[in-house]
């Protein structure tokens, strides 16, 4: 239990998807103009992350990893399909996003309307694929760890996009040099926020 | 169509993304996997080359298939084409430049979700012939690579005092050896990549006021 809590704190603050790895930057910059839309996208990312990471974990463990096919009987212990992992992961993500979209549309139309266009766009959000690839690299031991990592990394992304959106709403009233307006200043603010988040790196868990 | 292979329009396709329509600083695409690999020049260069290859050939393949892909499933077709190309690039890097491939770690795989690819496939290859699509891919790859190399140049020079792994700042300048100089360790940290891009955008937009935002 403590282990899972540590993993959560680590994936939210110390290994934050945006500030430590720059994942999901495109939508992070494009959709952070207002807090409301940023919240919608952030929630959608958490949602998809929590669903895709465990699925990809099972795929990795029982299909792709070196020796993962041992359950199929003798002769399969040496099969290594890990070179297929990119295509498998992205297919899972794309189809999960599609599935989630249909389920949400059917059972929670209010939420569906709030998330709107963001749900399909998540398929190409690097934070999602990044989460799966990091999961592969970290070689988690249990399904629980993978799920918690998915929730934590999604939550870290959510936190990041909400804070940048809040800052951008305020900064509209500031006098910024013309060439820096919009994109330029957003990059610099993100950099400064990243520096602040580096402060968490000293924490040993 | 008797247009020359290098007509003015085609040259424009190649040159625009390098400058005034740069994928990173103007279209804001492909920042995701770009910044993390720029602490040193060599991985940045390899990354730029890989993205160029994938975007150029992905563009050509999608452009050839553009009349046969049903509109509803086009995203998944694009993802499959890109993922296949990225697997080839990844295996190639692992075979020939293993140390760089280790350094790039997950970021080679993340080329799949690099927004430049989806952006160019959606916006260009789906509506154009293979040859212009190829040029568009090369141009966008080069524009992306240019920014990557500029960032990596400054980060490696100021952060480690080397370029491409070779020492530029002499050892004897360092404080440890009785000199006056010390590396700026902050340049190696991820946030400085963002600030460097911010400054590049600043310089580009003050030279080209048309790009400024209101």
Overview of this protein structure:
Chain A has 205 residues and is mainly α. Helix content of chain A is 71%, strand content 0%. The longest helix of chain A is centred in the N-terminal third of the chain and has 30 residues, at 35-64. Chain B has one domain. In chain B, strands 1-2 form a two-stranded antiparallel sheet. In chain B, helix 2 runs antiparallel to helix 7. Chain B is globular and about 70 Å long. At the A-B interface, helix 2, helix 3, helix 5, helix 8 and helix 10 of A face helix 3 and helix 8 of B.
Number of strands of chain A: 0
**Total number of helices of chain A:** 10
- Mean pLDDT across the residues of chain B is 83
- Residue stretches of chain B low in confidence (pLDDT < 50, at least 5 long) are none
**Given the C-alpha coordinates, what overall shape of chain B results?**
globular
Distance between the termini of chain B: 41 Å
Beta-strand share of residues of chain B: under 5%
Mean pLDDT of chain A: 84
Radius of gyration of chain A: 19 Å
Q: What is the gyration radius of chain B calculated from CA atoms? A: 19 Å
Widest β-sheet, arrangement of strands of chain B: 1-2
Secondary-structure-based class of chain B equals mainly alpha
Compressed to H and E, one letter per element, the order of chain A equals HHHHHHHHHH
| Element-by-element helix/strand order of chain B | HHHHHHHEEH
Gap between N and C termini of chain A: 14 Å
Share in helix of chain B = 55-70%
What is the domain total for the residues of chain B?
1
Shape of chain A: globular
**Helical proportion of chain A?**
over 70%
Largest interface: A-B, 50 and 50 residues
């Amino acid at each position: 239990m403590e282990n899972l809590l540590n993993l959560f704190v680590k994936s939210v603050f110390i290994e934050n998807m945006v500030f430590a790895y720059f994942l999901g930057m495109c939508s992070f910059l494009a959709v952070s103009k207002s807090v409301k839309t940023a919240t919608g996208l952030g929630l959608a990312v958490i949602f998809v992350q929590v669903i895709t990471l465990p699925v990809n974990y099972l795929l990795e463990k029982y299909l792709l990893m070196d020796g993962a096919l041992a359950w199929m009987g003798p002769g399969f212990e040496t099969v290594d399909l890990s070179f297929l992992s990119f295509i498998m992961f992205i297919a899972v993500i794309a189809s999960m996003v599609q599935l989630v979209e249909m389920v949400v549309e059917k059972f929670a139309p209010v939420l569906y309307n709030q998330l709107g266009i963001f749900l399909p766009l998540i398929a190409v959000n690097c934070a999602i694929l990044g989460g799966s690839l990091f999961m592969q690299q970290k070689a988690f031991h249990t399904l629980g760890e993978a799920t918690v990592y998915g929730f934590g990394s999604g939550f870290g992304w959510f936190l990041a996009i909400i804070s940048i959106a809040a800052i951008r709403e305020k900064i509209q009233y500031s006098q910024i040099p013309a060439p820096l307006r919009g994109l330029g200043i957003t990059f610099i603010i993100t950099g400064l926020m990243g520096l602040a988040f580096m402060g968490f790196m000293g924490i040993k868990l | 169509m008797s247009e020359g292979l290098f007509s003015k329009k085609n040259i424009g396709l190649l040159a625009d993304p390098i400058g005034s329509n740069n994928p990173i600083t103007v279209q804001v695409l492909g920042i995701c996997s770009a910044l993390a690999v720029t602490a040193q020049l060599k991985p940045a260069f390899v990354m730029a080359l890989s993205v160029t290859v994938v975007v150029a050939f992905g563009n050509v393949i999608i452009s050839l298939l553009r009349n046969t892909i049903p509109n509803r499933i086009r995203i998944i077709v694009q993802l499959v084409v890109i993922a296949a190309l990225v697997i080839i690039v990844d295996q190639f890097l692992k075979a020939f430049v293993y140390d760089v491939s280790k350094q790039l770690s997950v970021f080679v795989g993340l080329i799949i979700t690099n927004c430049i690819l989806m952006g160019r496939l959606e916006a260009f290859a789906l509506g154009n012939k293979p040859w212009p699509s190829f040029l568009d891919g090369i141009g966008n790859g080069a524009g992306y690579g240019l920014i990557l190399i500029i960032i990596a140049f400054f980060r490696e020079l100021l952060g480690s005092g080397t370029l491409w792994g070779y020492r530029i700042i002499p050892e004897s300048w360092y404080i440890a050896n009785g000199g006056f100089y010390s590396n700026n360790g902050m340049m190696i940290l991820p946030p400085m990549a963002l600030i460097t891009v911010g400054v590049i955008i600043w310089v580009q937009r003050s030279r080209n006021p048309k790009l400024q935002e209101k």
